């Protein structure tokens, strides 16, 4: 473990804060050291992290070196989300440092290409890369159960902050990290080198793993996937632990902990709690097409409405397993009225009317989508509505399934074509 705490900032460059005051690397480093120790103490006091070794990593790895610029969400109420660039020059050094050492995620890229450096004022966009909140990053490292000497593959380098925590605790020679976006990978490499960490970094598709470093003892992903890539299991050994967020197009999500049991096989379960990551780009949904609704289709009552999809939990995951290629759309009319649709690309749809507790559904297209969802949810209810962390996950070379108290749902293994965090 690398316990060095006095690391350079900004590569020795001087920064100017508003008002013309010169901020030296030394003064920034002193403030940052105080703030990250405060962050580590806060996370410890809240009971989010158990391990003294990982708390020590938070207290010693300079997060500000990995978030030298990021987007801050502007809470303006209505309309698309507005993101403002944040860095030492535009926000002031103290404000930037304070934000860097909050237990919060910071968006570092929008729409797959836009960085804070590229804009001068607030912009709209969809986050495609971020620095995940430190407590969650370290909770995942804890859940991975990595031991001294373990070889770890991290999928989704992002800013490199999570990578740096792994380097601090396990040694950089044991860490391999892969990032799908070449520009993000290059920035992460610079940040890691600036704080004197030199893991094996690769720019490429993490869904293919990194064969050069295999076999791995642990694999951790900081992006969400619809299913487990076979390459990860191929690059593991019996007993390898894989930690990955399994998510989908209806929003169901859970942090899965799997153990490789043999050639092409693994099994495990979802861990308690809520975890959500940006999807790997090959697993992200494509823009949905609104189908032509058949006004003559029968409208019938249903015990399960779209509120099942919009509330996190086991029911949402069940609905997603029953209709894995479907997406949920909420259309807002000019008068503020909401229209609820579940659609998939073969023009199948479920169109809802009513309100919670009194829903009706109208279906069209080649597949009766909501019939499948209702059947699965009815079985889940009949079995006592077990929590998500009781669901069992089984991976074989032929299929990947989730077993839920007598009902089995299958994970989709078809990909579309990686988001990054860290």
Provide structural commentary.
With 422 residues, the chain is of the alpha+beta class. The chain has a domain at 10-120 and 127-204: Vaccinia Virus protein VP39 (Rossmann fold, 3-Layer(aba) Sandwich), CATH 3.40.50.150. Helix content is 26%, strand content 28%. It has eleven helices and 22 strands. The protein has helices spanning 25-45, 52-60, 88-91, 93-100, 134-144, 161-170, 182-194, 230-234, 307-310, 314-322, 369-382; strands spanning 15-16, 22-23, 70-74, 82-86, 106-110, 123-124, 127-131, 152-155, 175-179, 200-203, 216-225, 236-247, 253-262, 265-270, 299-302, 327-332, 338-343, 349-355, 358-364, 392-395, 400-404, 407-410. The strands form five sheets. The protein has a ten-stranded mixed beta sheet, sandwiched between helices. A five-stranded antiparallel beta sheet has the order 15-19-18-17-16, with helices on one face. A three-stranded antiparallel beta sheet has the order 3-4-6. Strand 9, helix 7 (182-194) and strand 10 (200-203) form a beta-alpha-beta unit. Helix 2 packs across helix 6 (161-170). It starts with 14 loop residues before the first strand and ends in a 12-residue tail after the last strand. Residues 1-24 and 416-420 have low confidence and may be disordered. Belongs to the methyltransferase superfamily. L-isoaspartyl/D-aspartyl protein methyltransferase family. It comes from Kribbella albertanoniae. Its EC number is 2.1.1.77. It is found in: Cytoplasm. One of its GO terms (biological process) is methylation.
Short description:
This protein has helices at residues 25-45, 52-60, 88-91, 93-100, 134-144, 161-170, 182-194, 230-234, 307-310, 314-322, 369-382; strands at residues 15-16, 22-23, 70-74, 82-86, 106-110, 123-124, 127-131, 152-155, 175-179, 200-203, 216-225, 236-247, 253-262, 265-270, 299-302, 327-332, 338-343, 349-355, 358-364, 392-395, 400-404, 407-410.
